[in-house]
Design brief:
The chain is an alpha/beta fold and 460 residues long. It has helices at 17-20, 33-40, 42-45, 56-70, 81-84, 94-109, 125-129, 138-153, 166-176, 186-209, 232-255, 266-269, 276-283, 329-340, 374-378, 381-399, 445-456; strands spanning 3-4, 10-14, 74-78, 113-117, 159-164, 215-221, 224-227, 289-293, 297-302, 310-312, 345-350, 355-356, 404-410, 425-426, 430-432, 441-443, 458-459. The radius of gyration is 21 Å and the shape is globular.
């Protein structure tokens, strides 16, 4: 049986500037948070220094050629804010502008549609030094940066995302302390998140005012939550987990309100920004699409504790990144998102599976199968199985009437995953040998599998 995709479906792959460009100090680029903190806290980044990356910055023609040979219809990438405004919110680095023009021209020459994120993990260090996303001035800095990108690249980029995974870029940095700037302050995290949401609205409004012909949206990590049992307490706990982790940003951005269930927790309700609903009402603007980053689902059980009264129930299979593998859930998350936010185009903006790379010690926190040799890494049948089941689920969702317009495999090539594995884990369709000075590229078996899917417009 074949699962056939509709005409015009965007088969894509994804990565980000900070994870594959490398060359972080050349051509006037400023220091970004990832680059800075991996030297301050190397233990947090697990061999994740972006300076050791794949060097897409210099080798983008070669890498885009591999994308063309794969048959990619679209590439999701990001602009490094610190290449455009390296040291402050006033002075533009023309060499950074020139670089992204060259990348975009190469993509367009090869008939690959760009989907570009304005912000994907690499906040400029000068922003953090001036108070970060918590500072209300962040909104103006972000708008200035966005306006420059729209003016320069707006006729070349068909799809824009304001931010990738705001949970990681904002909440994890200010509430959970596991992303830059490594703070643990719920009040600051809620204010910073609110600033990011208002910045999103103002950016979308600017996009409309400038008359750009493309579409603009938001990419969010949806961590699908199922109740651990059919007990109503477990089911309600799973809904609250979805509301706080996945829906906190998307409800505000697409519905104009924060999810009500989370206000049952005093430490959330009592720390909300002043006049937050007024801000949402005054700035709300419709957005064109939503990107779903889907890596798996979790079983959530009710428990009693001082903050959130639920927890993840352990025991399901995981990959090297600790994502719980659940291909069937991709249909459920598409259904969930469409029904919660009707009228939006939907993209699966990230989806992938990882394994531990050769030459790295076993990690007790990520007890997954170790790949013993680089030759074995190329025979990634597990990734083919993973892709096959998720792609089938997408076709089922499209057949059920859900408006999925594209799929982006994470990632096009091996990269650094920063604070969750660095170069020790592999997501790529293309192997990159970081242990060699030449950083050799070799397509994996999954690359050729995906090539066949794209050629046929169908998955078996």
């Amino acid at each position: 049986m074949k699962f056939t995709f509709p005409e015009g479906f965007l088969f894509g792959a994804a990565s980000s500037a900070v994870q594959i460009e490398a060359s972080p100090c050349v051509d006037g680029k400023g220091v970004d948070a990832w680059q800075h903190y991996c030297k301050v806290f190397p233990e947090r980044f697990i061999d994740g220094d972006p300076e050791k990356g794949a060097d897409f910055y210099h080798r983008y023609p070669e890498d885009i050629k591999l994308m063309k040979e794969l048959g990619l219809k679209s590439f999701r990438f990001s602009i490094a804010w610190s290449r455009i405004y390296p040291n402050d919110p006033e002075n533009i680095n023309q060499l950074g502008i020139d670089y992204y023009h060259k990348v975009l021209d190469e993509l367009i020459k090869n008939d690959i549609v760009p989907l570009f994120d304005l912000w994907h993990c690499d906040l400029p260090m000068w922003v953090i030094d001036r108070g970060g996303v918590y500072n209300p001035e962040f909104i103006d800095w972000y708008l200035t940066y966005a306006k420059t990108c729209f003016k320069e690249f707006g006729d070349k980029v068909q799809y824009w995302s304001t931010v990738n995974e705001p949970q990681c870029n904002v909440m994890a940095g200010y509430a959970w302390g596991n992303h830059p700037p490594f703070e643990k302050d719920i009040r600051k995290s809620l204010q910073a998140s609110h600033n990011m949401i208002i910045a999103h609205f103002k950016t979308v409004k600017l996009f409309r005012e400038m008359g750009l012909k493309g579409k603009i949206g938001l990419v969010n990590h949806f961590q699908l939550a199922y109740g651990a049992t059919l007990d109503e307490k477990d089911q309600a706990a799973a809904e609250r987990d979805m509301d706080f982790y996945s829906n906190w940003y998307t409800d505000a951005i697409f519905l104009g309100r924060y999810p009500e269930s989370v206000f049952a927790y005093p430490y959330i309700k009592d720390n909300m920004p002043k006049d937050y609903q007024k801000d949402l009402d005054e700035n709300f603007v419709k957005t064109d699409f939503i990107g779903i980053n889907y890596y798996g689902a979790y079983r959530i059980g009710y428990t009693k504790n001082d903050e959130m009264d639920y927890e993840v129930v352990k025991g399901d299979p995981q990959d090297a990144y600790c994502f719980t593998i659940n291909p069937a859930g991709i249909f459920d998350i598409i259904k969930y998102v469409h029904e919660r936010y009707p009228g939006l185009d939907v993209f699966i903006s990230e989806n992938g599976i990882s394994r531990k790379r050769p030459g790295y010690p076993e990690d007790p926190l990520r007890p997954t199968k170790q790949i013993d040799t680089y030759e074995e890494e190329l025979e990634d049948n597990y990734r083919i199985s993973y892709m096959r089941e998720h792609l089938r689920g997408i076709v089922r969702a499209i057949s059920a009437g859900y408006p999925v317009k594209g799929y982006y495999h994470w990632t096009i090539m091996d990269t650094t995953e920063g604070m969750c594995g660095g170069y020790s884990i592999s997501f790529g369709l293309i192997q990159v040998r970081f242990d060699k000075p030449e950083k050799t590229r070799t397509p994996k078996k999954s690359y050729y599998y995906y090539k066949k899917v794209i050629e046929n417009g169908a998955v078996e």
